[in-house]
Amino acid sequence: MTQKPAMDDPKPEPQTQEDAQAQTPDALGALEAERDELKDRVLRTLAEMENLRRRTEREIADAKAYAVTSFARDLLGTADNLRRALESVPETARAETESALKALVEGVELTERDLLKTLERHGVRKIEPQGEKFDPNLHQAMFEAPDESVAKGLVSKVVQTGYKIGERVLRPALVGVSAGAPKPTTPDGSDASATDAGDKPAN
C-alpha cells in the first residue's frame, strides 16, 4: 500500500495591502497621542522651571535687600537718642558762638547725619509724614486734636520718626492727626454748631 507523502503545514498567507492600510491609522493615532503627551510634559516642565527661576531670583533679591533688617532696626534706637540729645539743647545755647556746647552739638549733628547716610546706603529711609494724609500702612496715630493750621485727616505732629527698608515698613511713624479747626463756641462756652436756627426767638 503506497503511503501518501505528508503534506506540509499551510503557510500563512502574506499580509495584503488592504490589511496594512487598515492597521496604519491606529498605529499612527497612537504615536500622535504619545507625541502630544510628551510635548505637554515638556512644556509643563519648562514652565515650572521658568517659575522656579523667577521665584529664586526674587528670593535672592529680597535676601539682599532685607538682610540688614534686624541690624537696622537695632540702630534706630541710636538715631532716636541722637535726635533727642539735639532737641534737648536750647536755641540760646546753640547761638553762643564761643560755647563749648556749640561744638558738641555740631559733633552730634554730624554723627546723626553720618548714621542716616549709612542707613540710606543699605536701603533704610526716613518716613517724614508731617502735613501728609494719615496712612495706617506707614503711620501709627497716637492722638487726634483740633488744629487750625492743618486740615482734618492730615498729620499735624510727628511724635517719633518712622523708617522704611526697601518697600517694607521697618518702623511706623508715631503721629498726631489733625481733627481740623476747633468748633466755634458761644459766650457761655457751649458749642455754637449745636445751636439750631429754629431755637432763635422770633422777631
Topology:
Blueprint: H1 17-66, H2 69-87, H3 91-95, H4 100-121, E1 124-127, E2 139-145, E3 155-160, E4 162-165, E5 168-171, E6 173-178
Parallel strand pairs: 2-6
Antiparallel strand pairs: 1-4, 3-6, 4-5
The helix tally amounts to 4
Please identify the oligomeric state.
single chain
Question: What's the mean pLDDT score?
Answer: 81
| % residues in beta strands | 15-25%
**Order of strands across the biggest sheet?**
1-4-5
Helix content: 40-55%
Query: Could you state the order of secondary-structure elements as H and E?
Result: HHHHEEEEEE
Tell me the overall shape.
Answer: elongated
CATH superfamily of the domain at 124-182: Head domain of nucleotide exchange factor GrpE
CATH topology of the domain at 124-182: Nucleotide Exchange Factor Grpe, Chain A, domain 2
Q: How would you describe the overall organization of this protein?
A:
The chain is an alpha+beta fold and 203 residues long. The chain has a domain at 124-182: Nucleotide Exchange Factor Grpe, Chain A, domain 2 (Roll). The protein contains four helices and six strands, in the order ααααββββββ. The strands form two sheets. The chain has a three-stranded antiparallel β-sheet. A hairpin with a 2-residue loop joins strand 4 and strand 5 (168-171). Helix 2 (69-87) runs antiparallel to helix 4 (100-121). The longest helix has 50 residues, at 17-66. The radius of gyration is 41 Å and the shape is elongated. The protein starts with 16 loop residues before the first helix and ends in a 25-residue tail after the last strand.
